[in-house]
């Protein structure tokens, strides 16, 4: 029994399907390898495309009358949606660029404000120093005027001292020279 081959139904089916496929392909080849068939199929395709065009026009007319969207309307809406999305993306990019530039300008403005604060602080300090300097200058001028007065007074005192010394010297000279009385005495 081992000498006999086992029966495999799938292999028989496979052989049968290959034979059947070859016969159908030969039959189709015979049918399509004919000029009349090609002409007929060409006319059928033309007629089919005209019928489809007419059907499409009728469908669009009916959809327009019933206010239903057609395939072309949906296509147009889809195209418009894509264009709108592209424009939105472009606007988002521009907004990001603007936000970045605004941030950088804000940083620059903040630095300018900080510098301005420092300048204002320095200006206030300079103003205070100027007020102090003016006061000191005024005080210096008044001191200078007082010094001039004192100098003038000292000069007067020196003159007075010299006059006093002169008078003192004169008094000393007068004391040292006592006048001798010459005159007649009544008793001598």
Main attributes of the structure:
rod-shaped, single chain, 188 residues
Summed up:
This protein has 188 residues and is an all-alpha fold.
Mean pLDDT: 87
Q: Treating each run of at least 4 consecutive H or I residues as one helix, how many helices?
A: 3
Termini, distance in Å? 218 Å
Main sheet overview: none
State the order of secondary-structure elements, H for helix, E for strand.
HHH
- Give the class from helix and strand content and strand pairing: mainly alpha
Shape: rod-shaped
Helix content: over 70%
Our estimate of the beta-strand percent is under 5%
Return Rg in Å: 67 Å
Annotation, overall tally of beta strands? 0
> Poorly predicted ranges (pLDDT <50, ≥5 residues)?
none
Structure in words:
- Helices cover 86% and strands 0% of the residues.
- The model has no long low-confidence stretch (mean pLDDT 87).
- The chain is rod-shaped.
- With 188 residues, the protein is mostly helical.
């Amino acid at each position: 029994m081992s000498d006999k081959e086992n029966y495999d139904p799938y292999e028989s089916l496979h052989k049968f399907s290959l034979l059947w496929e070859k016969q159908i392909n030969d039959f189709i080849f015979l049918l399509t390898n004919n000029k009349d068939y090609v002409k007929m199929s060409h006319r059928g395709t033309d007629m089919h495309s005209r019928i489809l065009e007419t059907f499409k026009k009728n469908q669009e007319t009916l959809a327009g009358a019933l206010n239903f969207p057609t395939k072309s309307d949906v296509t147009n809406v889809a195209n418009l949606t894509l264009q709108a999305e592209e424009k939105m993306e472009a606007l988002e990019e521009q907004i990001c660029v603007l936000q970045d530039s605004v941030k950088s300008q804000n940083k620059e403005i903040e630095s300018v404000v900080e510098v301005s604060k420092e300048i204002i602080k320095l200006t206030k300090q300079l103003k205070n120093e100027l007020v102090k300097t003016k006061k000191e200058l005024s005080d210096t001028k008044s001191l200078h005027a007082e010094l001039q007065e004192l100098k003038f007074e000292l000069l007067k005192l020196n003159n007075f001292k010299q006059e006093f010394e002169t008078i003192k010297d004169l008094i000393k000279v007068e004391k040292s020279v006592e006048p001798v009385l010459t005159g007649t005495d009544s008793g001598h």
